[in-house]
């Protein structure tokens, strides 16, 4: 990770949020609120992605270009986060630590590479995943256990 740093035994987000605030107008409006919401990076907030479990990674090539979907189950097993990437130009799976089998998300980071080209990096306990893309749709679906229905959250 270039902006979020692991220092003295803890993750430091100060430079990352400074970066997001400095480049706020360059972040697509559709995902700006989600990416700049501090609670998404918290260790314990109900809407955090920290400790989410990787459910699925898919990539396919269509007439419109390469797409990828990352699905995570929230840390409290009460919601599903779906990241739909369009115009994917690169997918990079980092080296897996074979001693650690967890697929829990530690942190995620959004970066602007150049005009209309972005990178999202997901850092897991045992691996990392980087995707370069030009469009991202993020959805959050709340699971309702009593009726097995899902509610899409704004």
Protein model, in words:
It is a single chain. This protein has one domain. The chain is built from 2 helices and 11 strands. Strands 3-4-5-10-11 form a 5-stranded antiparallel sheet, with helices on one face. A 4-stranded antiparallel sheet has the order 6-9-8-7, with no helix packed on it. The protein has a two-stranded antiparallel ribbon with strand order 1-2. A hairpin with a 2-residue loop joins strand 1 and strand 2 (10-12). The model has no long low-confidence stretch (mean pLDDT 89). It is 10% helix and 49% strand.
Concise structural overview:
The chain is mostly beta strands. The chain has two helices and eleven strands, in the order ββααβββββββββ.
As laid out across the biggest beta sheet, the strand order is 3-4-5-10-11
End-to-end CA span: 29 Å
Strand content: over 45%
- Which structural class best describes the helix and strand composition? mainly beta
Shape: globular
Backbone CA Rg = 15 Å
Largest sheet: 5 strands, antiparallel
Mean pLDDT: 89
Helical proportion, percent range: 10-25%
Q: Any low-confidence stretches, pLDDT <50, length ≥5?
A: none
Task: Count all strands and give the number.
Answer: 11
In DSSP terms, counting alpha (H) and pi (I) runs of 4 or more, how many helices?
2
């Amino acid at each position: 990770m270039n902006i979020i740093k692991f220092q003295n035994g803890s993750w430091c987000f100060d430079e990352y949020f400074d970066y997001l605030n400095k480049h706020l107008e360059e972040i697509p409006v559709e995902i700006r609120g989600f990416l700049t919401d501090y609670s998404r990076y918290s260790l314990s907030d109900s809407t955090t992605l920290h400790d989410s479990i990787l459910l699925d990674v898919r990539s396919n090539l269509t007439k419109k270009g390469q797409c990828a979907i990352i699905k995570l189950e929230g840390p409290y097993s009460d919601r599903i986060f779906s990241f739909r990437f369009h115009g994917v130009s690169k997918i990079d799976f980092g080296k897996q630590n074979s001693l650690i089998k967890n697929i829990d998300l530690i942190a995620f980071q959004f970066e602007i590479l150049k005009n209309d080209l972005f990178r999202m990096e997901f850092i897991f306990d045992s691996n990392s995943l980087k995707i370069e893309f030009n469009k991202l749709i993020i959805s959050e679906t709340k699971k309702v256990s009593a009726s097995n229905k899902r509610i899409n959250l704004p």
